[in-house]
Design brief:
The complex is a heterotrimer of chains A (100), B (736) and C (190). Chain B has 736 residues and is mainly α. Chain B is 67% helix and 5% strand. Chain B is built from 28 helices and nine strands. In chain B, a hairpin with a 4-residue loop joins strand 6 and strand 7. Chain B starts with a strand and ends with a helix. In chain C, helix 1 packs antiparallel against helix 2. The longest helix of chain C is centred in the middle third of the chain and has 28 residues. The relative contact order of chain C is 0.06. The chains are: A mainly alpha (100), B mainly alpha (736), C mainly alpha (190).
């Protein structure tokens, strides 16, 4: 219930998201990891907002994080679909070509 | 009247011909006539300057003490080890120098004039004048010089000019050999000369005449030199060495071999160099170091050398058929007389004989040149010098004949002529030495008088053979042109002939004061002004001061006029004895002259005595005389070919076989090794390691580094995380 | 008490959901576990007194984003590619990565944990921690007021952002004129 517990949770979320991004080879799976990370940061904000500064702005920050995450997920998935249309696969190593 | 003698009033004597030489060296090819004119004008300028000095010394200041002495420091080598060590150059003019300057420049000018006629149709006409100008400048510089070192410099310069002029006709092989022989023979004498200079220099620190006289007066030169286990007095050693220079340059025995061969040069060159000036330089040197010879006890040696030369050369001249050869040996003989005069202590007469000999011998050579030049052989296209082909030329060349007659009378010692005045005094002093001191001094006296007989004989032989009798070669005689009076051919001869009169040198017609010439104030001017620096007379040199090159007023009122002392500084009794001996000598001289002349007359004009008879009776002697006493044989075949040449071969074998092969060519091997090392270094280190290695390492790094940009997003992500973490680490962890 | 129970349940859901997202082979299952994790996060928000945020989370994330991801998974073949084998790979489900990638991931996580732990300890020692939570009674009203007064720019910007995202997504994923499973001359990649 104290601040530390929330921070621990958000750290775990963050780490899990990190592992997902680094270790998985599917682009969509990587996007999952990104979502986890974003959530971890939003949770952080709100936790601080309650225990440290008691300001309502932390909630607003979390809201905006959610908004951005949604927008980003939409655009990212659109890119994934386009990538799939071109390459016929969504393996991350197929996106390693630096210059066409 | 006061005269200021600055540098610009004295130095042009030597510098004008030198500038003429420098200018002519550049323009002689294109502007030959201008070059010749410049040469003649330069020597005439020198003559005018000399005339001015002569005028001041003889006519204005008539004093034995009057002198001009200026020095400047050429090198200053003083340092703390050697103390003061200066090398000075300078000018020293006294009465002797004044007379010598006038004689040299005057004779040189007349010879320049004659050369414009004699060398006019030669291809290298201008070149001759270039050398002549250099030579006259060197001789005048020598006469003006103040110390033995600068004298030596001009001495060597004259040696070089003599070499160039003797070898002037370098197409003839004989000329090349003769010029080399002249140079090398005088070189032998010069080595000793330099040794003597060094000996004196290391003892008293200077070689100026004045300093040497001063040192002798103070006894500074008394020392010993260790030679081959003997202790030789320093004065004798130095005097002997310097006298060797005279022996070389003035063609005394044993170094007389070069002068006969020097006749390969053109005749005006012979006139200037081998009659009037260069050979006289040797005698001038001996005159200057006379006190050294006296204190060193070398005078008997000097007298004998002079006597032997005088007599020996006269004997060789008896059998010569080339007109120039007769004159050459005559020159050697007369030089022997001068040296003989120094040896017997007759300083004044020796110098007078130098001057008079210069004049009449130059005239004789020029006259011979005039004869040779007009005897043109159409078959060989050369000029004839052989007397057996001449004869009866007196009708064709009257002016030349007149000049030659005057000079022959002078050289043989006819009364009223200058040669009689000087030679008779020398012989009189030789006789005096023999009478007074006996023993060794009989030799020089006998040699002197014997030589005088021979001189009379062979000179008149030459005259009679050339100018009298019937022409022996009709063809040659007919093609000879009649002589006309011309400025550059006859006038120099006649001017020189005028000065062969004895009255110019001593006021009387006979030189003994018997018949005095009228209207002349100081009759015995020569004998008064030229003073013998004998060792008991040197005290006045203790006060000679050397002035630096500053304009200094030398007032000739400070010098007392000298008077002619007919007693020569002796008591009346001694003077009477001296005069008596001199009179005896004069009479003997006259008889000698008459005897020689008549002998020649009977042999060659009257033909009552046949020379062939004498030749047959003394055939061995005749051949010896024709081979010049086998001196050339000795030097060339025995000493050079048997001695020096094998040594030369040995040394050259060493040089080429050993030194060149190992020390010089050996470096090639070393270079080869070094080159190999260097190329290997270049290949391995520079090319492979540095140059190729750079490329290879770039490729290596490329392989390593390009994995960073592999395009994999996850890799980038990891890197970004690492960077972030390390950022936190650098920021945060330290504080926490 | 209610708070604590809710907190524990939400925490449990969040953490295990996240862990299972990592470990699950099947991509669809990973999305579902993400969903659960996000629901747990919403519960956590509630315990923190951020009702509005929790509600927004549920609506947007759970009901929007994850569904969208599921759509994308299904549109791109369902994550059923070939298995790549190499020396150190374990035979995992397709697109799961191999041991190497997991290793790197784990290493990064450990490193981050160390750093984060260090930071956390400091905060724990120096930060002011209020024990009694102070609840905002009129949370929604407050947020609404703030959005339209203090942060109105961000509010409007976020709407522009969403518009841009919308249009962008539509444009980017627009199919070409021919069949999307055909490669042809209309490929824009060059």
């Amino acid at each position: 219930m104290s601040l530390i517990s929330y921070l621990v949770i958000s750290t775990i979320l963050f780490i899990c998201g990190l592992i997902v991004i680094i270790s998985r080879k599917n682009i969509v799976a990587m996007l999952l990891g990104i979502e986890l990370i974003l959530n971890a940061s939003a949770l952080n904000f709100v936790a601080y907002g309650k225990y440290v500064s008691a300001h309502i702005d932390s909630h607003i920050m979390s809201l905006f994080i959610i908004v951005v995450a949604a927008a980003e997920a939409a655009v990212g998935l659109a890119i994934v679909i386009r990538f799939f249309q071109i390459r016929e696969s969504i393996h991350i190593d197929n996106a390693a070509q630096l210059q066409s | 009247m006061e005269l200021n003698y600055s540098f610009s009033q004295v130095a042009p004597i030597a510098l004008l011909p030198f500038f003429a030489f420098v200018i002519n060296a550049f323009i002689v090819k294109k502007f030959t006539k201008t070059a010749v004119f410049i040469s003649c004008a330069a020597i005439f300028g020198s003559f005018l300057y000399s005339l001015r000095i002569f005028n001041d010394f003889v006519f204005n200041t008539y004093s034995t003490d009057y002198h001009i002495h200026k020095v400047f420091t050429w090198f200053d080598l003083s340092n703390s080890i050697t103390g003061e060590y200066l090398i000075n150059m300078g000018i020293y003019i006294d009465n002797m120098t004044a007379v010598m300057l006038l004689m040299v420049s005057g004779a040189a000018f007349l010879i320049h004039l004659f050369s414009t006629y004699y060398m006019a149709d030669d291809i290298r006409f201008g070149r001759f004048f270039v050398y002549l100008s250099l030579f006259t400048s060197a001789m005048l510089g020598l006469v003006l010089s103040e110390n033995l070192f600068s004298l030596f410099i001009f001495w060597e310069l004259m040696g070089f000019c003599s070499y160039s002029l003797i070898g002037f006709y370098y197409e003839k092989e004989g000329a090349g050999n003769a010029s080399m022989k002249a140079f090398m023979t005088t070189r032998v004498g010069d080595v000793f000369f330099l040794l003597g200079i060094v000996a004196i220099w290391t003892t008293i620190g200077s070689v100026s005449y004045v300093d040497i006289y001063q040192a002798l007066a103070n006894g500074d030169l008394a020392g010993q030199v260790a030679m081959f286990g003997f202790a030789v007095p320093l004065v004798s050693f130095a005097a002997f060495c310097i006298f060797m220079g005279t022996i070389g340059k003035s063609a005394q025995v044993p170094l007389q071999v070069w002068l006969p061969d020097a006749m390969w040069g053109p005749t005006p060159c012979s006139a200037l160099i081998h009659a009037a000036t260069m050979v006289a330089a040797g005698v001038y040197l001996s005159l200057r170091i006379y006190p050294l010879l006296e204190v060193g006890g070398l005078l008997p040696f000097v007298a004998y050398i002079g006597g032997i030369t005088a007599f020996g050369a006269a004997t060789i001249a008896l059998v010569q058929t080339d007109i120039k050869a007769v004159l050459a040996f005559s020159t050697i003989s007369q030089l022997g007389y001068m040296v003989l005069g120094i040896g017997v202590g007759s300083y004044n007469a020796s110098f007078m004989h130098l001057v008079t000999h210069a004049i009449f011998k130059a005239c004789l050579f020029l006259a011979a040149g005039s004869v040779i030049h007009s005897l043109h052989d159409h078959h060989t296209h050369g000029h004839v010098q052989e007397m057996p082909r001449m004869g009866g030329l007196r009708k064709k060349m009257p002016y030349t004949f007149f000049a030659m007659l005057c000079c022959t009378l002078a050289i043989t010692g006819a009364p009223f002529f200058s040669g009689f005045v000087s030679k008779d005094r020398i012989l009189g002093d030789a006789l005096l030495m023999a009478v007074d001191n006996g023993a060794v001094w009989y030799g020089p006296a006998l040699l002197g008088f014997g030589g005088a007989i021979l001189t009379a004989f062979y000179m008149f032989r030459m005259l009679f053979l050339s100018f009298f009798g019937e022409p022996r070669d009709k063809d040659l005689y007919d093609h000879t042109h009649q002589e006309k009076l011309s400025l550059n051919r006859n006038v120099p001869l006649l001017i020189l002939a005028i000065f062969t009169l004895g009255a110019w040198f001593s006021g009387s017609m006979t030189g003994q004061g018997i018949i005095k010439a009228p209207f002349v104030k100081n009759k015995e001017w020569f004998q008064t002004l030229i003073e013998k620096p004998s060792s008991n007379n040197l005290n006045k040199f203790k006060t000679y001061s050397k002035t630096q090159w500053v304009d200094e007023t030398i007032s000739n009122n400070n010098f007392t006029k000298s008077e002619y002392d007919s007693n020569h500084g002796l008591t009346d009794e001694q003077a009477h004895h001296v005069h008596h001996v001199h009179h005896v000598g004069a009479v003997v001289s006259v008889f000698i002259f008459l005897f020689g002349t008549l002998l020649a007359y009977f042999m060659y004009i009257k033909k009552s005595l046949d020379p062939a008879v004498w030749v047959n009776r003394f055939n061995g002697w005749y051949r010896a005389l024709q081979n010049k006493y086998y001196f050339d044989d000795l030097y060339v075949a025995k000493m050079i070919q048997k001695g020096l040449l094998p040594l030369n071969n040995l040394l050259s074998r060493f040089d080429m076989g050993f030194y060149d092969k190992y020390a010089i060519d050996g470096w090639e091997k070393v270079n080869r090794v070094l080159y190999t090392i260097s190329s290997k270094f270049d290949n391995i280190f520079v090319d492979r390691t540095l140059v190729d290695g750079t490329g290879t390492s770039v490729k290596l790094f490329n392989v390593i580094l390009r994995t960073i940009q592999n395009g994999k997003i996850q890799f980038y992500f990891i890197i970004a995380l690492v960077v972030l973490v390390s950022y936190f680490y650098s920021l945060g962890l330290n504080k926490f | 008490m209610f708070d604590q129970v809710l907190f524990y349940i939400s925490a449990f859901l969040t953490v295990f959901g996240a862990i299972l997202v990592v470990l699950e082979r099947n991509l669809m299952h990973s999305c579902i576990f993400l969903l659960t994790s996000l629901m747990g996060v919403a519960g956590l928000y509630l315990t923190l007194g951020a009702e509005f945020v929790a509600a927004t989370q549920l609506v947007v994330y759970v009901g929007g984003v994850v569904i969208l991801m599921l759509f994308a998974v299904m549109l791109t073949g369902g994550g059923l590619e070939e298995i790549k084998k190499n020396i150190v790979s374990v035979d995992l489900a397709p697109s799961m990565g191999n041991l190497i990638t997991y290793f790197w991931g784990a290493l990064s996580a450990v490193v981050f944990l160390l750093v984060g732990g260090k930071i956390l300890t400091s905060i724990y020692s120096s930060a002011v921690i209020a024990d009694s939570p102070k609840l905002f009674i009129k949370t929604v009203e407050e947020i609404g007021t703030k959005l339209l007064t203090d942060h109105v720019l961000m509010f409007e910007m976020s709407s522009v952002l969403l518009l841009g995202a919308l249009i962008g997504a539509a444009v980017i994923s627009r199919p070409s004129k021919v069949n999307i499973f055909q490669k042809g001359e209309d490929d824009v990649s060059h």
